[in-house]
Design goal:
This protein is an alpha/beta fold. The chain has 15 helices and 23 strands. It folds into 3 domains: about 210 residues, FAD/NAD(P)-binding domain; about 120 residues, FAD/NAD(P)-binding domain, CATH 3.50.50.60; about 110 residues, Enolase-like, domain 1 (2-Layer Sandwich), CATH 3.30.390.30.
């Protein structure tokens, strides 16, 4: 049996951050990852999806040439070439991570990890013992039981990313970030797409006014969007797959050559034998506190394994907190602060959010003031021809401190960072107004809701 001071299970973004943090203070760190090495973000998530979305963005602009006084352009997508470009970029990103994991200061076991006790782990033929364990095993697509769905067959985002022949039509189940990004990608390169969402609007975890601009643009681009639905069953009609669902009180059908099942992801903890580790699990996720500790104080869980917030920069932060706490039992523990949790959905229009939403404030009875301003009345957005969406700010009623910032519109993922920086320093709407904003830029739009809030505070 080999003993390590810290064993990290999973070498993705969260796991590598934890391992690197512990290693940098001299700890003996082992990483167990059965491969392929690289992590979800690099191999199947953030980077490959953004690579293919860029191709669709370029094609969408080409189709709009006459709008800008240019001769019409005939654009045709080559899905196989798009996938080749994506694969090339992913290989480059993965090579850096693989090289980092093979750092001789780590011990890397390319095996599956199985707990034998709270301190003992089997990794292939290796029996290991750890003083501290950090679980960072990522996520996998959820399995949803709907009559007939398994029979007709479906793809998850993992498989759809490698598709090389453009489908004539596609049914997308789910209106979360994954479903929306891939739905728009395929629609823009020539597939007829139908999107079916259970909740009253897409991006149901966010405020409705952030989702509606996305739905509007989807419909303008020819995507059939059904919200507030209930899926009943699936059937086949020849070579097409048919969804039967309730919408507006009536049973309706929609069909496609393929189905994308994008109804969520879940922690990838199957096969770890967490019962042997005596770690508490609820509803398929590992329970942790702010220090990222599980019910076993020496075992931590970070990233998608705890399912608190499924974005990479938060996973990295959690990994760093766990890595520090695992090797510094003699120091005050670090905690994850979710005040600045941010998210970006890379649709057109993009959606970016940080901090509290109105929905959350109402549910938790948190006092707030809110103001918004539309891109349809903003000069630079009008010049760009990107007028769907709005900027919305939330602040405390007495002090004006920003507690939430939300953007649906062009370059939202870039624009949100100014507001994130203001919130990092506990800044107010008055601070937003004091910051110079060049004209004409998209960024200056944030001053308009700030002005409205400042007037309410006066």
């Amino acid at each position: 049996m080999v003993t390590h001071e810290v064993i990290v299970i999973g070498g993705g973004s969260a796991g590598y951050a934890a391992a690197r943090t512990a290693r940098d203070v001299g700890a003996d760190v082992a990483i167990i990852d059965h491969g392929p090495l690289g992590g979800l973000c690099i191999l199947r998530g953030c980077m490959p999806t953004k690579a293919i979305l860029r191709s669709a963005e370029v094609m969408a602009l080409m189709k709009r040439a006459p709008e800008f006084g240019l001769a019409p352009v005939t654009a045709q997508a080559d899905l196989s070439a798009i996938v080749d470009r994506k694969d090339r970029l992913v290989r480059e990103f993965a090579e850096d991570r693989i090289k980092a994991l093979h750092d001789p200061r780590f011990t890397l076991y390319q095996e599956r990890a199985v707990f034998r006790s709270p301190y003992d782990i089997q990794a292939g033929r290796h029996r290991l013992r750890a003083k501290r364990v950090i679980i960072a095993t990522g996520s996998i697509p959820s399995t949803i039981s709907i009559p007939g769905l398994e029979d007709v067959g479906y793809l998850t985002s993992d498989a759809l990313l490698d598709l090389r022949r453009l489908p004539e039509s596609l049914l997308v189940l789910g209106g979360g970030p994954v479903g929306l990004e891939l739905a728009q990608f395929y629609a823009r390169i020539g597939t007829h797409v139908t999107l079916i969402q259970r909740k009253p609007h897409v991006l149901s975890h966010l405020d409705e006014d952030l989702a509606r601009p996305v739905e509007a643009q989807f419909r303008e681009e020819g995507i059939a969007v059904y919200t507030d639905t209930r899926l009943i069953r699936f059937s086949r009609e020849g070579d097409r797959k048919v969804a039967h669902f309730i919408h507006d009180g009536q049973e309706k059908t929609a069909s496609g050559a393929l189905i994308l099942q994008a109804l969520g992801r879940r922690p990838n903890i199957d096969g770890l034998h967490l019962e042997a580790a005596q770690v508490d699990v609820k509803d398929g996720r590992i329970l942790v506190n702010e220090e990222m500790r599980t019910s076993q104080p020496h075992i931590f869980a970070v990233g998608d394994a705890n399912d608190l917030h499924d974005v990479v920069h938060v996973a990295i932060q959690q990994g760093e907190v766990a890595g520090h706490n695992a090797v510094h039992a003699d120091r005050p523990a670090r905690r994850v602060d979710d005040r600045l949790d941010a998210e970006v959905i890379f649709t057109a229009p993009q959606v970016a959010t940080v901090g509290l939403t109105e929905k959350h404030c109402r549910a938790q009875e948190i006092p707030y003031l809110a103001a918004s301003y539309p891109f349809s009345d903003h000069g630079k957005a009008m010049v760009l021809g990107e007028t769907h969406g709005l900027v919305k700010l939330l602040c405390r009623p007495r002090t004006g401190e920003l507690i939430g910032a939300h953007i649906a519109g062009p370059d939202a993922g870039e624009l949100i960072h100014e507001l994130l920086a203001v919130m990092y320093y506990h800044g107010t709407v008055h601070d937003v107004l004091r910051i110079p904003h060049y004209h004409p830029t998209l960024a200056e739009i944030v001053t308009y809701p700030a002005e409205a809030l400042a007037a309410q505070l006066a």
